[in-house]
Amino acid sequence: MKVKENISVSVFSIILLLVLTGNGIFTIGTLGVFAQNADSPKNVPRTVLVELFIRGGCLTCPTAEFCLEDLAWEYGTSKFILVQEHLWGDGYDTTETNARYNWYVGDSKKGTPDVFINGLTKRLQGLACDCVEGNYECYKDAIDEELTRPSLLELSAIKTPHPNPLPQGEREEKEESPQGEREKEREDNQVVEEAKGEGKEGELVEEKVLNIIIEGTVKNISDIPLKDLAVCGMLGKEGDASGLYNYIQDIFPFQNIPTLLPGGTFSFKFVPEISLAPESEIDGEEDVLHLVIFVQNLKTKEVLQALYIE
After folding, report:
1. Quick check: helix, strand or coil at residue 226?
2. Is a pLDDT exceeding 70 seen at residue 197?
3. pTM value?
4. CATH number reported for the structural domain that contains residue 234 in this entry
5. Is residue 113 reached through a cis peptide bond, with omega within 30 degrees of 0 on the bond before it?
6. Is 33 part of a structural domain of the chain?
7. CA 60: distance to chain centroid?
8. How many angstroms separate the CA atoms of 104 and 111, rounded?
9. pLDDT tier at 67, thresholds 50, 70, 90
10. Fewest C-beta in 10 Å: which of 68, 176, 219, 283?
11. From CA 84, how far away is CA 86, in angstroms rounded?
């Protein structure tokens, strides 16, 4: 009789366990039965940000440009974002691109081409070999390795274009970024623009300026607190010549993110301004602009997630 009772209890226990498992209340693992967390971390694909620092007259830069641009087309912006940052007074560099390179390198060896994959996660200076195929595979392997790493963050943003210039001071003042002083440069540019705007009859000619508001959120989808983070962004243009694929013209100041607890979010807003080329200079076509937002650890200088804004 006791044997029958034990068998009945065992059968009932097994049935109950199967029912609970089917409802997702429990999961069976190799070490036993564990309660399933309904708020388990989301699986968000990682987008790799590759920064290619180059300069005009560099003999080996075109090889790096060719390989990375080819990979950019192959992967698409949902997996891999390529930005090109010019250096050292080559006509396409900016104060911010030079300052960002110095922020990365410090007293280390400098030279172009210099590739940073997700910030200082991986640096590839110079070329791996003399052949194009070898460098292509080298860059591809490094990108693929980063794509396999799980993302700790979910990054979302939208842009709203404004055809008319925003009032002076509309851009929010943020803590100064390591990427250089911006305010004095804006004031100097304003003086130059006002001087350029004087027509022959003394009339003021308004410069064509594009104002864009970028708003978004950063969410911690991991199960650990994240600190020392900041959200940043870049605005680039596209040209026909070599080295002008998404070449950066504006780098936004870092916006520091307080310690982000699991499930926590941080909201940000950027208001970049960029002068557009006169239509007569570009055969009636509009400038092709690229907007990139990314989250970076200010201590390790690792980029944790990036987003290309269509």
Report:
1. strand
2. no
3. 0.76
4. 2.60.40.10
5. yes
6. no
7. 25
8. 12
9. very high
10. 283
11. 6
Contacts for 307 with CB less than 8 Å, ≥ 6 apart = 47, 155, 156, 157, 216, 292, 293, 294
Nearest to 246 by CA among 82, 61, 30: 82
Report which DSSP code applies to 281: G
Q: Report yes or no on 6 lying in a domain.
A: no
pLDDT digits (tens, 9 = 90+) for 133-164: 999 999 999 999 999 999 999 999 999 876 55
Closest CA to 165 of 197, 210, 196: 210
Q: Is 223 helix (H, G, I), strand (E, B) or coil?
A: coil
Task: Return the pLDDT at 202.
Answer: 44
pLDDT tens by residue, 208-217? 556 788 999 9
181 within domain boundaries:
no
Specify if 76 maps to a domain. Answer: yes
The total domain count for the chain is: 1
DSSP 239-272: -SSTT-SSEEEEEPPPEEE--B-TT-EEEEEE--
Rounded Cα distance between 65 and 86, Å, is: 12
Average pLDDT in the chain: 79
β-bridge partners, 161:
212
Amino acid at 132: V
Q: How many Cα neighbours within 13 Å face the side chain of 194?
A: 6
Least confident of 42-46, 124-128, 140-144: 42-46
Q: Which two tokens stand for residue 288?
A: 């092709």
- Pairing type for strands 229-237 and 289-297 reads antiparallel
Reply yes or no on whether the pLDDT at 253 is more than 70: yes
Q: Are 100 and 119 in contact (CB under 8 A)?
A: no
CA-angle at 149, arms to 215 and 245, nearest 5°: 55
For residue 293, what are the domain limits?
Answer: 48-166+206-309
What is the DSSP track for 101-116? HHHHHTTS---SSEEE
Handedness of CA 142, 147, 148, 153 (dihedral sign): positive
Per-residue pLDDT of 77-114, as tens digits, reads 999 999 999 999 999 999 999 999 999 999 999 999 99
